[in-house]
Model the fold of this input.
Amino acid sequence: MKRPLLVFALSIMAVGSMAAAHPPGEWIVVVGGPSLHQWEQYKAYPHDHWWANFVHAARLRTEQLRTGLGPDAKITWLVYKQGYLDRAAQEHQDLISFIDSVADKFNLNLIYFQSGDEVINYLNNGPGRDRLKVVGFEYFGHSNRACFMFDYSNLLELPHRREHVEEMV
Done:
């Protein structure tokens, strides 16, 4: 009799510790856009050969999160849409539908954004933010120590000749 009671007590403690390790709330995954082929060619070490570098990495991490947090945990993907629209023209594919399929498979709240202000606004004022706190944040995209670069080498507002682009890289 003591052994089943001990097993039951340890099971209750394990379930309780799992719940404590993952407080209720929303997990945010931000996915920046890929660069365009036209700018990669000027880099000493081009690296954005595959459009889905960041989407794939975020998908793998989301799979881990879903396994650990459960099927109903709220996971939101914020994806820089313009980067994938622009790269889609080069790839001759509908990249947005591929991203949508990841959201469907993993039961994600998928939000496309166009500016950093939209990301900040969602983090601060997302639906139910007064009750549903952000409990995790992950970023997949280009960055440096000062900023996230959602549109890295995607849009250049001023025309540049090749020698100027090489100076920028």
Observations:
- The first helix runs from residue 2 to 21.
- The chain has one domain: 23-168.
